[in-house]
Amino acid sequence: MISKVKNAMSTLVGGMACAADSLPPRFPYGRPDFLDLTPELLQYSTEHASRPVLTVKRDSRLPWRTGYAEVINAGKSMLNEDQASCEKVFVKKPSGKHRNSSMLEDNGVSKVPGHPLKCLDGTGIPLHFWGVFDGHAGSGAAIMASKLLHRLIRDRLGEVCHLLENPNCAPPICLAKNGSPYQADTKKGAAQETEDPDAVTDSSVRFHMEKVVSLQSLVMGVIETAFTQMDNLIEKEKASYAISGGCCALAAIHLMGKLYVANAGDSRAIIIRNKEVIPMTNEFTPESERQRLQYLGFLRPELLGNEFTSIEFPRRIQHSELGKKMLYRDHTMTGWAYKTIVEDDLKFPLIYGEGKKARVMATIGVTRGLGDHELKVYNSNIYIKPFLSCAPEVKVYDMEENQHGPDDVLVMGTDGLWDVTTDREVADAVSSYLSGCDPSDPMRYTLAAQDLLMRSRGVLKERGWRLPNERLGSGDDITVFVVPLARPESET
Amino acid sequence: MISKVKNAMSTLVGGMACAADSLPPRFPYGRPDFLDLTPELLQYSTEHASRPVLTVKRDSRLPWRTGYAEVINAGKSMLNEDQASCEKVFVKKPSGKHRNSSMLEDNGVSKVPGHPLKCLDGTGIPLHFWGVFDGHAGSGAAIMASKLLHRLIRDRLGEVCHLLENPNCAPPICLAKNGSPYQADTKKGAAQETEDPDAVTDSSVRFHMEKVVSLQSLVMGVIETAFTQMDNLIEKEKASYAISGGCCALAAIHLMGKLYVANAGDSRAIIIRNKEVIPMTNEFTPESERQRLQYLGFLRPELLGNEFTSIEFPRRIQHSELGKKMLYRDHTMTGWAYKTIVEDDLKFPLIYGEGKKARVMATIGVTRGLGDHELKVYNSNIYIKPFLSCAPEVKVYDMEENQHGPDDVLVMGTDGLWDVTTDREVADAVSSYLSGCDPSDPMRYTLAAQDLLMRSRGVLKERGWRLPNERLGSGDDITVFVVPLARPESET
C-alpha cells in the first residue's frame, strides 16, 4: 500500500514528463506537518472513493486554536494537490555580521537562525501565518510554497525589524547601509534646479515633495515582494529539483494587531463578525483579469505566438464568417460592439469560456499564483507564465479596532469549498455550528471546519458526490482553515 | 473689446506655437450654443477679475428642465477651457443605400441626415445627451468633442437600431452584411475538431460555447467605441485644422429607460436620490491609474525615452544616494518596500506627486480623455499620449427600477466643482436648495446649479477667491449640470 503511495509520489512530484523526472523533488510529497499523519493515515487520505476528511488531532495545539480540515478530490488527480501551513514565528533582526549581505541562502531560508539579534522582548516580534496553496499540474510548487513562504516573509520583515519596533514612526524614505535613516540634502537638490535657490515655486514643491509611507504600507510591500521572491525561488530551484506545476496562494499574516490577507489566485478568505460577512479577497480568474491579460497580449503580441488573438469574441469564429460582423471586446472595453471579421480574428481568443470553464489560452483557469514557469499551451511552444502574475492583492484588517466574540472567525478555503457554498452559506453554517458548541472546547473551530468541508463535499451516492439538495458536491480538493479572532490573553 | 476676445481666440484655438498656428480652427471658440450668448456677454464671460456666473436663460428650454451653470477660471488660462453640450437627438436606421458603407463623413457627422429610415414611431428612438468637457492646453479638443461626441454615439447606435427595437432579444453574436442575424453551422465546426462528431465532451463544450450578450452591454460597447472614434477623429483632423490641447470627457446618455454615464478623466457625476449619494464615476488620475501606467512603462520602456523610470519613489533620488536603500513600489505593488538604489533609479519617476499635484511624466494630471496627440514632455521628444487612454468607464443606472421625486437629480461637474466641495456637501446643498424651491419653477435646477457653483467659486476677497469658511475657492473653470430624474410624461 505504502509503495503505491510512494510510486504515485515519485511520478507526480516530478510533474509532467520531461527532464525534470530525473531530478529529486525539492520537498517530498506529504500532508501538512501539523496533521502528524502516520504512513497508514497518509495512504488512507488518498482514497478517492471514500474521500476521508482529515483534521488536526485533539492534542495538537495549532496557534489560536485554529481549526483545520481537508479532503482529497474525487479522482481528478492522484494526490491531494492542496497544501496548507500554520505557523507561529518570530521576526528578528538579522545579526550585525550579516546585515549588509543577503539574509537568504539559496533555498530562501535565513542564513543566521542561530544568531538573531535580540529584538523587543528578546524573542522577536510574534508573527502568525496561515497559508492555503491550491496546486495544479503537480504538487511541487504548492508544497514548496507551504514550506517556505512564511519564512521568506519573516526574514524580509526581519530586515526592517528596527522600524517595526517604533510603530508610531513612519518608515524613513531612505536608509543608509547600516539601516539608519539617511537624510539627503534636498534643499541643495532643489537649489540646483531652480534659478533662484530661495524661491519656493509651485514647481519646486512639485519636484521636491516627500510622500509619507505608513508602517502598514511597508508590511504590505514586504509581503508583496516576498511572493515575488517565492516565485523566483521556485524558478531558480527548478534547475536542481523537480518542482512540478503551480499553485494559487492565499496567506493570512497576523503582525502587531493587524491581519494582512494576501491572495494570488482563486482561493478565498472571509471574516465572519457578528454573523456578517467581510470579504478579505478578490478572486483572480480569466474573467476577473480579462482586461489586464488582453492589455498584455495587445502590447506584446509576440507572446501570443501567432495562435491567439487578444480580442474577445462570444464564441469561436469560423472561416465562412469572414467579412461578417461579430460582437467583440478589446482590453479597453467592458461592453460589446460589432466589428467586421478579418483573417486575424480567426485565431483562438486569449480569454475564452465562462465561469469555471474560462481559460487563458485554452490552458489555465486561474491568473495569479506561484510556479508554472514551464507551463505551455498544449502542443506548442507558447508559454503561459507571462500572463500569470505572482503578485498578491493584500487587504488589511485591524484586529484592535474591533471587538470579537468567540464565534467571530476568519475562514480561508481553496476554491473547492467556495464553488458550491456561497459566502453567506458559509457564514450561516459557521455561526450556527459554533453557537451550538461549547466555547471552551479546543476542537470547536476544527469541528466547524469539518462541518464546512462536508457541506461542500457532500456524500457519495449512486450518481456521485451529492449535497443534501441533490446538487453535485465539489469533486475538487478542499482545504479549510477556521481561525478564531478572539483569543485568550495567553495566546496573543 | 470684442477684438480682444477674437485675438485671444485666434491665439488659443490654434494652441501652442507650432505649424498648427497657420491652420484654421475646426470650430470657432465660443460658449455652449444653449447659452445663446451675445458677443457682449461672451466678452463679459471672460472677465477673470469678476468671474461672472453664466446660466441658461429663463426661456431656454433644455430637455428635462436641465439646470446649468458655468464660470471661468481665476486667470490660469485666458479662455474658459470647459465646454458642455445638452442635446435631444433621435437614433435612426441609416438608409438602405448607405447601410453597407461608413455612415460617417470625414467630420464624423452622418452622411444621411435627410434620409433616415423610419424607426419605431417614425422619428427614431429618442436619446438625451449631457456632456462636460474639461479642456487643457487649449480649447480645441473640448470644443470639437462638445459638438460631435453625441452625434457619433447617435450614429453608431443607428447602425444597431434594428436591435434596439427588440429590447427583450439579446443581440445576435454575428450579423450578415445586411444586418440580419447570421447563424454559423457550429455543429459542423465542432465535428471537425473532435474525432467523434457525436461526442459532446467537456472540451467540445468549452470550445464551442456561446456567450449571451445583453442589449445593455451592446449600448455600453457602442458608447466606448464612440469615444475611441472621437479621439481618432481629433487626431485625423489635426492634419487640416488647428485643434489644440486635450480634454476630459464626461457624458450621460439616456436611452430607453437607462442612464449610461461614461467618464474619461477627472470630472465627476453623482446621482442624488432621496438625499443619498450614488457615485456614477471614478476619477482617472496619475494616482488612481498608477499601476496601469507603470505596467505600460514596464512593458514598453522605450516610451519613457531614457528619461523616466516606471518605478515610483516617495521623492526624487539624488546621486549621492546611490547604493543606499529607498522605499519604492512597482506596477505589481500597493504597499512599499526598500530597494538598493542603482543608476537607473535616478531617472525621474513616471508617476510623481500627490493629489492634485500628481503628474504623468511631470506633465499632465489626468490619465484619460480625448485629444493630446501632440503633447510632449517639456523640452523633449517624449509623447505623453500612449499613457493617456481615451477609453471611458461606463456605469448604468436603471431609471425605471427606481421612483424619483422632484429633488432627485444627476449632478455632473468638472473637477473645479469637486476639488473644493465633497459629494456629501453637494448632495446636502442641492437637497436643501431644491426643497426650498417651487417644484413647478422651470428654473429650479439651474438655480441649484448656480448655487453649487457659487459654493465652489466663493467670493473675491483681498486674499483671492474665498469660501464662507475662509478656505480657498476653486480657481479653475467650473461647469455644472443638474439634471432632474423625475419628469412630466410629456418630456420622456
Describe the structure in your own words.
Chains A, B: This is Protein phosphatase, Mg2+/Mn2+ dependent, 1J. Chains A, B: Residues 65-485 form the PPM-type phosphatase domain. Chains A, B: It comes from Gasterosteus aculeatus aculeatus. 2 copies of one chain form a homodimer. With 492 residues, chain A is α+β, with helices and mostly antiparallel strands. Helix content of chain A is 25%, strand content 20%. The first copy, chain A, contains 12 helices and 21 strands. In chain A, the strands form 6 sheets. In chain A, strands 1-2-21-18-8-9 form a 6-stranded antiparallel beta sheet. In chain A, strands 3, 4, 6, 7, 16 and 17 form a 6-stranded antiparallel beta sheet that branches. The longest helix of chain A has 23 residues, at 215-237. At the A-B interface, strand 5, helix 7, helix 8, helix 9 and strand 11 of A face strand 5, helix 7, helix 8, helix 9 and strand 11 of B. Strand 5 (174-175) of chain A pairs antiparallel with strand 11 of chain B, so a sheet runs across the interface.
Entry keywords:
21 strands, disordered N terminus, 20% strand, six-stranded antiparallel beta sheet, 25% helix, 492 residues, homodimer
SS summary, helix count of chain A: 12
Low-confidence stretches of chain A: 1-19, 98-118, 188-202
Distance between the termini of chain A: 43 Å
Tertiary shape of chain A: globular
Query: What level of helicity do the residues of chain A show?
Result: 25-40%
Largest sheet report of chain A: 6 strands, antiparallel
> Regarding quaternary structure, how should these chains be classified?
homodimer
Task: Decide which structural class fits the backbone of chain A.
Answer: alpha+beta
Rounded radius of gyration of chain A (Å): 25 Å
Count interface residues per chain for the largest interface. Answer: A-B, 69 and 69 residues
Largest sheet strand order of chain A = 1-2-21-18-8-9
Amount of beta strand of chain A: 15-25%
Q: Give the beta-strand count of chain A.
A: 21
Protein name (chains A, B): Protein phosphatase, Mg2+/Mn2+ dependent, 1J
Organism (chains A, B): Gasterosteus aculeatus aculeatus (three-spined stickleback)
GO molecular function (chains A, B): [pyruvate dehydrogenase (acetyl-transferring)]-phosphatase activity
Domain PPM-type phosphatase (chains A, B): 65-485
